[in-house]
Amino acid sequence: MRILITGIEGFVGRHLATRLAADGHTVVGSAYQSALTISEAEGVARLDIRDRSSVSAVITDARPDVVVHLAGETSVGESFRDPATTFDINAVGAMNVLEACREASVGRVLLVTSCEVYGDPDPSQGLIVETAPLVPINPYGASKVAQDVLGYQYWHGFGVPVIRARPFPHTGPGQASQYLFPSVARRIALAETGRGAATVSVGNVATIRDLLDVRDVVEAYVGLIETGEPGAVYNVCSGKEHRLVEALDVLCELAETPVRIEVDSGQRRPADFAWMVGDPTELKAATGWRPRVRWEQTMRDLLSDMRARIDADAPIEAVKRDV
268 versus 103: which is more confidently predicted? Predict the structure, then answer.
């Protein structure tokens, strides 16, 4: 198949491109950055998904069988600072992509939203299922609800074969250090070389999350591309609880220099939630998917990747906004 990935230069986009190319698919992509080369992709077009005519031109020119829409604003913190831009990128941008897919009669669209659509769920109600209310508590989540609903509408109203995925938190090698686990891995790597303190400040880690390795998330997306049902929505999650502080302990135990975690209440994001754990039953039934990468391996690979980037004096920060 010929598969177009929007936001191909981002954390998940690069992993997905590698995985699809390994299966023999022809991969093309779009990126918000100026022209760049990704070895697994036949070509990467410069694209701002807020520009409807440009989105239409890129998708028409690419002639994809499948579009995977990953491009967007990914930061909850940024959404509080600039909610209008976040909504423009995530909601209007998704509509532009969906409309271009409709015009080009794309055979399959995987629209990636977020578990943030569920807001602040009540753990007493059990694992979060896809029919749970969409009650976002931050501007990012609201933009993802709009994206999600647009995906359903384009399927129901226009017949565009849209499959929606709601991923839960994931990490792994290649993630930008603005996020929790790579930020701690970066501090560990710097401390090991004597270029940083052995104390790592973090925000609220007294919370529970459903955590996955990015490579398992990519496997889920591949499964949904192949066998997901158009019009349906799937949680991409493990169904298992992880206390963030305990998940961080696994990473710190891998450090060659002892490090200490220090909680800084000033780093807590507004409107945070205490618990977010999903039910992967629908995804497993549709694709046969199971998470394969153990958390210890995820942390080991993340730290090894960060050490390599520090040793090579390579830029640590990846692109935050894959518009």
Answer: 103
